[in-house]
User: Fold peptidoglycan glycosyltransferase from Spirosoma foliorum.
Amino acid sequence: MLIIEKGKLIGKRFWQSRVVRTASAGLLIFFSLDFFFPVSTNVLYSTIITARDGSILHAFLSRDDKWRMYAELNEITPTLRDAILFKEDKYFRYHPGFNPVAMFRAATRNLLTGRRTSGASTITMQTVRLLEPRDRTYSSKLIELFRALQLEVHYSKDEILQLYLNLIPYGSNIEGLKSASLLYFGKPPVLLSLAELTTLTIIPNRPSSLRLGVRNALVVQERNRWLARFRTAKLFNDEAIEDALNEPLTAYRREAPQQAPHLSRRLHAENPTTPIVQSTLQSATQATAEQVVQRYADRIRAYNIHNSAVLIVDNLSHEVVAYVGSANFTNTFDGGQVDGVRAIRSPGSALKPLLYGLAFDAGIITPKTKLADVPINFGGYEPDNYDRRFNGPVTAEFALANSLNIPAVALLKEMGTPALVSTLQKAGFTAIKKQAKELGLSMILGGCGVTLEEMTRLYAGLANGGNWEPLVFTPPLTPPLKQGEGDKHKLTNSPSPSFKGRGLGAGVNIMTPEAAYLVTHTLTQITRPDLPNNFDNSYHLPRIAWKTGTSYGRRDAWSIGYNQRYTIGVWVGNFSGIGVPELSGANTATPLLFQLFNVLDYNSPTGWFKAPKDASKLSMRLICPETGDIPGEFCTNPVTDYCIMGVSRYRHCQHQKAVFTNAAGTISYCTQCRPDSGAVRKAYPNLSPEIIAFYKSRHIPFEVVPPHNPACERVFGSTEQAGPQITSLTNGSEYFINPKQPAEMELSCQVANDVQTVFWYLNDKLYSKAKPTEAVFFKPRPGALKISCADDKGRSSDIRILVQHE
Assistant:
């Protein structure tokens, strides 16, 4: 008896050890095969661009031309999960990738009938077939079983179900439940009703016969049959089933979402392998901006102006909330697919606020500093104002608000072009980086290349107290997952890796908060010529700071404005570069800017810009209204002006100078010839030569210093004052003449207001005696030429030119 029991025990242990060894060997073989032949879940998904709230803006075909949109785990609702599992695989949660009972039942039926009457594929096995399509053979079945086990080992049940729903076919080139939901019902899966969900669960088994939009009656019949099964199985309550049975089927093939096409293409190019790219766009703001721009473009088309572009930025986060690259993306005739936000154009006068801000910070000017708006020759460059008029001496704030060209060029010349170029380079102006060595004084009037994105970003820096930061196009969240990785881990809304956002250390202080406040304060004024027609004294006028720009030849119209909440950049023109006489920043671009602000942020509750908190820097001081300098001896009516303490230039006003004359005021004296008695000390205007020339050309009266004492034997020409300034011709220039018909050249100069006569010399030989405002002409000869001009006080200046035959 003992021997028998020992035998049984030995036999039991033998079989146990054999089972263990067999199982161990099987696991070793499985994991070895799994290591050398891993299952691949790399799927080429369609790229979809979403708004900030997750709503879909734009969808692109996958690289194999399929509509295969990625559904996230949170889009698989309990209703969808229950319906699909009941229909396809009731024991999905319990089997290891295959269902042995179902396989045995199917094999028995097939053997008894001699044909294939039923299948035993689980959702896991169907997922394998969708990933790796094969012929329906027994060997293929074995591979599917192995692959199914691999999926179960490496992925959770929810992830396998997610992968399955992303791959199931719906006919044509539509794959995945999310694609079908959007293209047939026009909404995401989470918004589908029970009837719509049931419809989408039955299509994949018969995508050819149950064609949505074509055989909807047959689809309804099959849908209701499955709804009856759901009721029998008590999967859903009777009320939900009844509502689903009575719901009409309105499915038809729709176009894929196509909103924000320009930014969507941009983000797609930056993230070609990311299934879902979340943008910072606000869907309602984007839709509103697109409608406003398209309607406005329709109105101005009568003037042969065909395109517009708009960029709207949230000033707090620097996120782009609306991006309109053209008036109509589908209009190929007018270049609708050109991205006007990134197109390089001439800015006109739109860079002037930056120049004035830099000049405030350099201490060169304050808002009430007087600048000369008169004809000036800047070494051969003679700019003109937009309206071809001159205003004489004006304040800096008037010059900026009225976008006067000559004061801006003079200011840039005083500051130096490299200072402005350097700031623009730091602020990410790519074309200016390339053109840096070629840029001169004309750049402040539009002689450079910029984009709407760069300009809007610059003005957003003004709205943020002079702190420039890159624009944010995608939220700075989790790094993006590549295609195929989204099935292994839950895909999160993720940013494009190529765009940096707020807080990433990429900010640049382009100017101090004090200078930015002074610029904003000036750009808020509404009594200015770039206020559009019919907008003065209008309740439709938004409270914003804005600046316009019109490029040479009226090819580009700009208007960029900001309040505390938004910065909006507007460009209007033709992508072809054709100029239009009616095109201007004031009357073409600014109405669109105002309309956008009125629609998006009318009577903004966010308040207005306040002076910087550090009151010790931005202060008020008394100045002379004639010059903007500290009141001097002859300044009797001072006014207040802003200044930046420790920075703004501190000099006493010299708009008038003391001159000793005789009692009748007909002769002036110097210190050498002033008599011991009888001389009278009087104040006379201390005008610059260019202002004197302007007053004389416009016949504007001003008090002139009397002629100097003719009996004075003093030799003039000391360094007290500079000699005449030759304004034509240009020193160091080359001039080409036609030897058969040589044209005459003009000589002109600017002198002090006490000069009555000037003398012109050619190669040190006297050529002409003339009044300071009189133009002198001569016929040049080939060769080097020295031109000299002397005044009646003995002061002189020279230039040298080279004359050559053409």
Remarks:
- The chain is about 35% helix and 15% strand.
- Residues 478-505, 715-720 have pLDDT under 50 and may be disordered.
- The domain at 351-449 is CATH 3.40.710.10 (Beta-lactamase).
- The longest strand covers residues 796-805.
